[in-house]
TrEMBL record:
Keyword set, alphabetical order: Cytoplasm, Repressor, Translation regulation
Biological role stated in the UniProt entry: Functions as a ribosomal silencing factor. Interacts with ribosomal protein uL14 (rplN), blocking formation of intersubunit bridge B8. Prevents association of the 30S and 50S ribosomal subunits and the formation of functional ribosomes, thus repressing translation.
Places the protein is found: Cytoplasm
Family, similarity comment: Belongs to the Iojap/RsfS family.
Protein name: Ribosomal silencing factor RsfS
Taxonomic path: Bacteria, Pseudomonadati, Bacteroidota, Flavobacteriia, Flavobacteriales
Amino acid sequence: MTKKEIGTDQLITQIIKGIEEVKGNDISILDLREIENTVCNYFVICNGTSNTQVNAIVNSIQKTVSKSLKDKPWHVEGSENAEWVLIDYVNVVVHVFQKHIREFYDIEGLWGDAKTTTIETNY
């Protein structure tokens, strides 16, 4: 495993930790490395029940990653209405949805060729 891969694994671990801190739902990791012409290596997708929880998840992810890895997102988009917030860490892109918006856009369906890992939560 290369050093970059280990960094990506650590980043994903901290992102998941940040989501779980504020009880984000339906966490999935899409591995896009085997698909041609993708913008990143992984998508991490989750949803919250309200715009308040979506913002809490986004803030928790940023705080957890910043504190443990000293890393900031390259770009954050969608915080204004908090229906779909995208956090871009270059190799890993995090999508935080409200449930009905996630169902409407069906990112997992669009990227059906990706290897999907579902994270089990105990809350």
